[in-house]
Design brief:
The relative contact order is 0.14. The protein has one domain (37-153). By secondary structure, it is an all-alpha fold. Helix content is 67%, strand content 0%. The longest helix is centred in the N-terminal third of the chain and has 27 residues, at 10-36. The protein contains eight helices and no strands. The chain has helices spanning 2-8, 10-36, 43-48, 50-62, 68-82, 95-115, 117-123, 128-137.
Length: 159
């Protein structure tokens, strides 16, 4: 009788094990995102410059002078941001909306390590104030030396 019971519950145990493993992996990823978030940047600051940041990511991804691996990461980030579901559901207060920001920060940090801060400055479409926020988001120290549009902290080039 015990053998028959264990044989019939094997698929159930397998599904429960897989679900438990996925849940543990998701929890580890959420914890990693919380630990890796930029400390000196508020979510409000980052969300205000999100349209310019998306244009920056698109421009960097299209720049054939950048290494292929960097461009692939940027295209994958654009795909992730376009997907209707997130790692952390948006209905969870605060962190639900911040997961896109954290993933974007991690990718930008990776891009800056490979492509350099000059690529970030070259392709930034917005204001100098917005570039300073992205500078913090990318984990860079100091201030950017951009000569672009600085009037009223408003985004510049609409491309």
């Amino acid at each position: 009788m015990f053998d028959r019971l264990s044989q019939s519950s094997a698929p159930t145990l397998l599904l429960l094990s897989a679900a438990g493993s996925l849940l543990a992996l998701w929890a580890a990823l959420v914890l990693t995102l919380l630990v890796m978030r930029p400390q000196s940047l508020s979510v409000r600051e980052a969300l205000q410059i999100m349209p310019d940041t998306l244009r920056l990511i698109r421009r960097l991804a299209a720049d054939e002078a950048l290494p292929r691996g960097v461009r692939v990461r940027l295209f994958l980030l654009l795909a992730y941001l376009a997907l209707p579901f997130d790692l952390i559901p948006d209905f969870i207060p605060i962190i639900g909306q911040a997961d896109d920001l954290i993933v974007t920060a991690l990718v930008l940090r990776s891009v800056v390590r490979r492509a350099g801060a000059a690529a970030l400055e070259k392709h930034w479409p917005g204001s100098a104030i917005g570039l300073s926020v992205v500078w913090k988001l990318a984990g860079l120290v100091g201030q950017p030396s951009q000569q672009g549009d600085t009037k009223n902290g408003v985004s510049g080039d609409p491309r």
